[in-house]
Amino acid sequence: RTPNIDRLAKDGVTLTQHIAASPLCTPSRAAFLTGRYPIRSGMAAYTRVGVFLFSASSGGLPSEEITFSKLLKQRGYSTALIGKMWHLGMNCESSNDFCHHPLNHGFDYFYGITVTNLRDCKLGHGSVFLKGVEKTIATSVEIIGITLVSLATVHLIGFLKIPFRALGYSLLITAILLVALFFFFYNYQYLNCFLMRNHQVIQQPLSYENLTQRLTKEAIQFIGRNTNAPFLLFLSYLHVHTALYASKNFIGKSKHGLYGDAVEEMDWSVGQILDVLEKRNLSSKTLVYFTSDQGAHLEEISSSGEVHGGYNGIYKGGKSTNWEGGIRVPGLLLWPGVIEAGTYIDEPTSNMDIFPTVIKLAGAELPSDRIIDGHDLMPLLQEKNIQSKHEFLFHYCNAYLNAVRWHPRNSDSVWKVIFFTPKFNPEDSNGCYDSHVCFCSGRSVTHHDPPLLFDLSKDPEEKVPLSPEMESRFYEVLSVIQQAVDNHTKSLRAVPDQLSWDNLLWKPWLQVCCSSLFQSCYCDYDSKENLPEMHFG
Fold first, then answer.
1. For residue 478, how many C-alpha atoms fall within 13 Å in the half-sphere facing its CB?
2. Where are the beta strands (DSSP E) in 167-305?
3. Global pTM value
4. pLDDT score, position 137
5. Yes or no: is domain 128-189 CATH 2.60.120?
6. Cβ proximity of 23 and 438 under 8 Å
7. CB–CB of 69/107 below 8 Å?
């Protein structure tokens, strides 16, 4: 039950074809903040791993990138980021240089987590990593065993003299590294799951107790401090990314288990924000935008078999894929008196469009020294334009161009060409359940020549790829899209890869620790007391 999110749709505009710029957190959020495809900022990976997983990684959103928060701050706006959102790096060379931190990208105030919310952050919810680590260790032990037997055999029969002392040291070092790796992932919660206020760690590891109430309290207090001044509030819930959680006021209240409880608690918080805007007479002066950074993570299923990853309705696939289920996300905008209530817009739009929209509303100038891929939404929202400015949208799987969407002018058709598709496992499923997410290259994908072609205006479920026999314009559509790809590719410039293995790996000297390693970095300075009076439905 989501009466408050429903209120956003009823009293505002619903974008029914709202597209995330990537089906993964890190690149999608980079695109959202900058209005640019993540490939342009180096926030799209050529490695298998497409997101930051450790707080002590050195990659992140480059300081040269311009965020909408940075431009609004220059225009006199107070800016705050509260919640999960960042996931765009923190430090570069030391544990306190904060080169990628939100406060270095235009936010005045930060209260939240810098990496992401994973099962490993919550005791009893399993691990995203350990299954892979266990396989790695098992494989390594097998390889070491076979190597030892083989070397012993060739030594005994005299083919080769083996310096067993050197070999023993090598095996010892390998064993120590494997044990250290295993130990690291078992202690992931203490090293990577922590809460910050500005530059200070205030809770390590993160406590989920009353967390949504704490986020809501921070948001309400920020609005209160800026009632008479322009402000930008970016409230990013940990809901409903796993590990799932809900407070005692919501546990067991929905009909859909812990996932439903979490959704209903998030909806309650949305209602609290809308209520405080009304109470302070700010509704008519405030644009509210509600979305997600990608589709539901279908492979997230608890050890007891409970669905924790969500549901994408009629749409195929989910998080980590460029099927519609991975990139078609909520797009709800509310601004009483400015945009008409109850409006539905079925035109392709992108989360990159928020950048130019808020920049123009704030009276700032769009950067002229770089390509901005988003478009101002206001003409579409106010029905001054009936068609989206996005004739083409390019869908990347990490750094690989995966698909292209084409909405021809004066046409209802929305063509989508897909160059490669993930190999679902099991084959007859709707996701990559064996690997937890789908990957973008190598043996994990199937390339298509010619590419798959769909008309989303007639087949939004992407059930039946069109063929030249079914669609007379088949090759014409492919030709137009290929020309668009060529033009888009020419617009790209070489930039440092922020998600290279070197930038992704954990670096001990970048590790944040609010006490000491002997105390497992434990601290808790975040008061859970004196929460404002809040009413629960």
1. 16
2. 195-197, 200-204, 231-236, 288-291
3. 0.92
4. 62
5. no
6. no
7. yes
Distance of CA 516 to the CA centre of its chain: 31
Q: Which amino acid would we find at residue 527? A: S
With tokens 């006490």, the residue in question is 515
The catalytic residue positions are: 25, 87
CB 274 within 8 A of CB 421: no
Instruction: Indicate the length of the chain as a whole number.
Output: 537
> Are 60 and 88 spatial neighbours (Cβ–Cβ below 8 Å)?
yes
CB atoms within 10 A of CB 418: 18
CATH 3.40.720.10 placement within the chain = 3-118+193-504
Q: Does domain 3-118+193-504 have CATH number 3.40.720.10?
A: yes
As given in the structure block, the two tokens for residue 246 are 């809900």
d(CA 166, CA 148) in angstroms, rounded, equals: 13
* pLDDT, tens digit, 9 for 90 and up, residues 304-315: 888 898 999 999
Within the chain, which residue ranges are assigned CATH 1.10.287? 128-189
User: What 3 state SS string does 492-532 have?
Assistant: CCCCCCCCCHHHHCCCHHHCCCCCCHHHCCCEECCCCCCCC
The answer, yes or no, to whether residue 534 has pLDDT greater than 70, is no
What amino acid is encoded at 174 in this protein?
A: T
- Apex 53 CA angle, 48 and 54, nearest 5: 135
User: What 3-state DSSP class applies to 404?
Assistant: strand
The CA angle 228-267-375, to the nearest 5 degrees, is: 65
Is 175 a residue whose pLDDT tops 80? no
**3-state secondary structure (DSSP) of residue 11:** helix
Supply 134's token pair: 């266990």
The mean pLDDT value for 509-514 works out to 94
